[in-house]
Write a structure and sequence with these properties.
Layout: E1 2-3, E2 8-9, E3 14-24, E4 30-45, E5 49-53, H1 68-75, E6 88-89, E7 95-111, E8 115-131, E9 142-162, E10 168-189, H2 193-197, H3 205-212, E11 216-237, E12 242-264, H4 273-286, E13 290-310, E14 316-326, E15 329-330, E16 346-347, E17 350-363, E18 368-380, E19 383-388, E20 393-398, E21 401-413, E22 419-434, E23 438-439, E24 449-450, E25 463-478, E26 481-494, E27 497-498, E28 508-509, E29 512-523, E30 528-535, E31 543-548, E32 553-558, E33 563-570
Parallel strand pairs: 1-6
Antiparallel strand pairs: 1-2, 3-4, 4-7, 5-32, 7-8, 8-9, 9-10, 10-11, 11-12, 12-13, 13-14, 14-17, 15-16, 17-18, 18-21, 19-20, 21-22, 22-25, 23-24, 25-26, 26-29, 27-28, 29-30, 30-33, 31-32
Length: 572
Amino acid sequence: MTNVYDGSKTQDYHDFGGRVQFLLTPNEQLSIKLSGDYGQQYSNTAAGVLTGLFTNYADSGAAYPNGYLARTARIDFTPPPIDPEARRVSVNTKNSYFETHGGVSAIVDYKLADATITSVTAWRGWHWRPHNDADGTTVSAIIDAHQDNDQQQFSQELRIRSEGDRKLDYVAGLYYFWQDLEAEAVNYYGPAAADWLLAPAAASATVRAAALNNYSIVSHSSPETTSAAAFAQGTWHVTDRFDITGGLRYTYEKMTGWFDQTAWGADLSGLSAADRATALALRARFGAANTFSSKTSGDSLTGNVTLAYTFDNGPLVYATYARGYKAGGLNLSNINTSGANAVDPVIAPETIDAYEAGLKSTWFDRRLTANLALFWTKDDGYQTTAVNLINNTSYLTNAGSVRSRGVELDLRAAPIQGLTLYGSTTYNDASYTSYEQAACPIEIQLSTYCNLTGRRLPGASLWAASTGGEYRKAAGTWRGDGLQAYAGYDASYKSSYYTSASNSEYSKIKGYTLLNLRAGIGAEDGSWDLQVWGRNVFDKLYYLSLGAGNTGAITGTLGDPRTFGVTLRVRR
C-alpha cells in the first residue's frame, strides 16, 4: 500500500518470536514438560481503501445527509481516485500497532497401571497498542481512535484418562480458568473535527467548533472472568465394530466489570445558555462522562453422544448430537444503561444444538480417502454486534436464533507414487431464523428496526472449496544425503458473503478464487529444505472487509496482492 500524502509504504509486518521447551523424565512413570514462549509484532497499517460512495438511501431514494463529498469539500481534502487496484490511501497520521504476547505452561503426566493422570497449568499475557487515524484524510479531524488492552489469564486442568485395550475408555477431569482485562479507549478529535463530522445545519460554526474541535474522550474498562468445570466422557466398545461415545460437562462462569469514561474540551462558558446546551448535546453524540458497573453469572450442563459403526471393508458411519453453551458477557463500552435508548450491559448466553452424520472411508488400497458429513446446527440467543451509525459505536446483543446446515465433502488421493492430490467443498446455509429487531443497514432510512429473519449470517459463504496437490521425486544426492525435489499448488474459493451483522449491501464481498504455487528441493530426511513460492499468483483483487461508514464512504481492507518469496528451513 502507498500513502500518497507522504509517499510512505504501509502494510508492513515485523515479527519476532521464540519458544523453549524442556522435557523432564525423573522415572518411567513421571514426565514433566515445561514450555515458555514470547512474541511481538509491529506494523504500519493503512486506512481503508476507498471503493465507492453511498449517496442515496435505497428505500426512500432521498439523499444521504452530510455525505462524504460534502465533508471533503468543507475541509478542502481531495481523496485519492476510487481505484482499489492502485492500493492508495491518503492520511496525515500513521496507523500502526504494536503487540506482545507470551506465556508459560507445565504439563505433568503420571502413569498408573491402567490410566494416566495429567495436570496442565498455564499462564498467558497479551498487550495491544494500536494507533488509528480514524478520519482517513490529510486533515486533523479524528487524530486517534483506539483501545489499548492488557490481558492475562491463568488455567488449571486436572484429568485422568484410561490406557490400554479395554471395553470402556474414559477421560474425566476438573478445569479452572481466570482472566483479567484492563482496557483504555481514547478518541482524540483534532482542530478540524467540527468541519469533518458536523453538518452546518447542526449549529453555527462557532458552536460546532467549541463543541468538537480538540475534544477528547478517554474511557477505562475492566472485565474479570472466572470459570470452573467438571467433565467426563467415555467410549463403550459394544462390539469390535460398534462404539457408543457419550460425555457431560458442568460449567459455572462469573463475570464482573466496570466502565468509566471522562471527556474534556474547550471552555463553553463564553457561549449563551442556548448555544451551550446545543454544544453539550453535540458532544454527547460522540461521548460524554459515563460510568457504570455490571455483573453476570450462570451455569450449564452440556454434553454429546456419538454412534459409530465400521463395516467389514473399512468404511465408518457415524451420527452425533451435541448440546453446547456460550456464556453471557458484558457490554463495557459507551452505552446508555438507562433512558429511552438504554442498552442492557448484560449479554445473555447462547445454547447450541448440533447434529452431524457422516461417512469416513478409504478405497483402492488406501490410495483414495473419501469423507462425507451432513450437519445441522441451531443456535438460540446468538450473540452478535449491533452498530449505532449516529455516533459510530458498537455493542454486543442477542439476535434471537440462527441456523447452519449443509454438507462437507473431502477427498484425498495418491494415484501414482510421489503424487498426492486433495479436494474439498462445503455447502453451508447459515442464516438468521429469528431476528426481528435488528439494526438496519446504513442504506435504509424509513425503518427503526429491520427484520433479518431468513437473511444470511455475516462471514458465512454459501459455498467454499479448495484443491491442491504435490509431486515429489528423488533428485540425486548432495554430500552423501539423498535429495528430493517437489512442486505443488493450492487453490481456494469462497462465494460471496456479508461482513456486517446488518447485511448491508455495501458490506457484501464478491466471491473469489486464489491460487498459490510452490517448488523446492531438500534433504530426504527433512534436515533442510529450500523453497520458492508464489501466493495469489494471478494477482486477484479481493477484500478482507468491506462496508459503508457514517460518512457515506465505502471502504475496504484489501487482501495481499501477488507475492513471491524464498524460504529456507534447517532442522538439527
